[in-house]
Amino acid sequence: MGRSKLSPERRRLVLDLLSQGHKPMEVARRTGVSKTYIYELNHSLGGVYRPAGVAYSDRYLDRDERYELARLREAGYSLREIGRRMGRSASTISRELRRNHAPRTGQYQPERAHALAWQRQRRPKPSKLSQNPVLRAEVQRLLKKRYSPDQVAGRLRLLHGDNEAMQISHESIYRSLYVYPRGELTRELKASLRRGRVTRRRRGGSDETRGKIPGMVSIHDRPEEVESRLVPGHHEGDLIIGSTASNSAVGTIVERTTGYLTLLHLPHGRTADRVAEAVIDQMTALPDWFAKTLTWDRGREMARHLHITATTGIQVYFADPHQPQQRGLNENTNGLIREYLPKGTDLSVHTITDLAAVADELNDRPRKRLGYHTPREMFASLLINDLTSVATTT
Question: How many CB atoms neighbour CB 220 within 10 A?
């Protein structure tokens, strides 16, 4: 269904579904509206939607009134009759239609009109980023380090807790980028976004193929302390695969309490022997109290898990088939790593030094669940506590 034939009610349904986080293709399927129109609409709003129920004053038309105006207008009622039915003056209706109609078609689209009115009401108040060059420079610096807007906002609160001028919400950053573009400011900040997207999108996940491995111990047999993330030393692991021709891979292991990342260098393939050797080399370099368990998916590369346990004392557990969310921290971390090691590329070209640089950058990136501290800071704090405890007992 094209734009010109879409009723105000259908437009509102589309916007409501998009604002709830549904993807454009899913919205098209559920509403019967053209996916092209939905993608254009989502792009025009930058993927960021005004919070429901927000209004400046009762004297302004709200969203419901704008949809009612569009419905009455399409029904052919005069401006005076529309005003009477809505309890508004005819001049208010006339002014609304004149200000917020589409320039090319002359149509009145209530969602677009609502967005225009919102922007017009906000116009007298310049954005915090445009007014504060020091804050803008700091935001841009952190974005260039591949921090997300949420991580930028949280890190600024952590570093400048006593300076309100150096703090900004992640929503303000997103809106500066996508909803209220301001020329060069927007171009500067967008250029620093780690994903480089023109609209704001939610992340997704995918299932993987699992194999059968002798002697597997189920994830459901893990100690209770693993699930709580209160006790350090419990890890999640997986492989990210390179191009088919290269047969290359990189192993990823992330600790559940701190988010501390370890990468496995596998330039010559991902056989069970090579993966076991890499896991043993990396995990034995960690303190014993920081290397207790490892939860992996059901890939055949972990077929020698019993050898890993016998050599290191680390118990290996396996997630259920097609349940990547059971290793959610590792799955999310792999998504971040893919920004450095893209899919379909030959991963064998990356040296141990290259992988160490990737791990360092991610271990120095703040995490919301850690109070915007970094994984390295959390690991260092645990090391200090351990050394203090040893000194006290001796």
Answer: 9
CA distance 164 to 168: 8
Q: Which residue segments constitute the domains of the chain, with CATH numbers given?
A: 128-190 (no CATH), 219-388 (3.30.420.10)
Write the single-letter amino acid at 298: R
Distance (Å, whole) CA 101 – CA 105: 8
Q: Tell me if the pTM is above 0.90.
A: no
Torsion, Cα 195 198 202 207, to 10 degrees, reads -60
* CA–CA separation, 113 and 97 (whole Å): 9
Instruction: Please state the φ and ψ torsions of residue 126, each to the nearest 5 degrees.
Output: -65, 150
Whether residue 32 contacts residue 6, with contact meaning beta carbons closer than 8 Å, is answered with no
Residue 237: both structure tokens together: 């692991």
Query: pLDDT tens-digit profile of 284-342?
Result: 999 999 999 999 998 899 999 999 999 999 999 999 888 888 999 999 999 999 999 99
Positions of the chain with pLDDT under 70 = 1-6, 8, 44-58, 119, 121-126, 178-212, 390-394
CB under 8 A, 24+ apart: contacts of 18-21:
18/42, 18/49, 19/49, 19/52, 21/202
Per-residue pLDDT of 240-287, as tens digits, reads: 998 887 888 999 999 999 999 999 999 888 899 999 999 999 999 999
DSSP structure class, residue 108: B
C-alpha span between 188 and 196 (Å, rounded)? 12
